[in-house]
Amino acid sequence: MTNSAGAVQNGLVLRLSLPATGDMAAVGPELATRLAQQLGLTPAHAAPVGAAVTDLSRTVDPSAAANVDFEFHKVGAELLIMARHDSRTAEKRIPLNA
């Protein structure tokens, strides 16, 4: 990520698909935390972003049997995280001005 913190304009920032369990599942929360820091949150305020990704994954795929698709959008002063698996969707908004 080469942008200065907070320099990303509104819109889609990142899209990825990750398994709900296993070694690769840990990539989602870690990446989300780093993305939030890149968008201007301090490490202390960015830490809950990773937990939000884990919660969203459990919401859309309670069986943890498949991949979950994530989209991260910057919308004004918020990070919008959207999760999707089959017909289930969930989202979480994180304020970026904390």
Helices and strands in order, then pairings?
Elements (H helix, E strand, L loop, with lengths): L10 E9 L7 H12 L4 H18 L6 E9 L2 E8 L2 E8 L3
Antiparallel strand pairs: 1-2, 2-3, 3-4
Helix pairs in contact: 1-2
Question: What proportion of the residues form beta strands (DSSP E)?
Answer: 25-35%
One letter per element, helices H and strands E, the order comes to EHHEEE
What share of the residues lie within helices?
25-40%
* Total domain units: 1
Number of E-type strands: 4
Order of strands in the sheet with the most strands?
Answer: 1-2-3-4
Overall outline? globular
The computed structural class is alpha+beta
Spans of 5+ residues with little confidence (pLDDT < 50)?
Answer: none
Report the major sheet: 4 strands, antiparallel
Keywords:
single chain, alpha+beta, four-stranded antiparallel beta sheet, globular
Overview of the molecule:
This protein has one domain (12-95). Helix 1 packs across helix 2. It has 98 residues and is of the alpha+beta class. It contains 2 helices and 4 strands. It has a 4-stranded antiparallel beta sheet, covered by helices on one side.
Quick overview of this protein structure:
With 98 residues, this protein is α+β, with helices and mostly antiparallel strands. It is 31% helix and 35% strand.
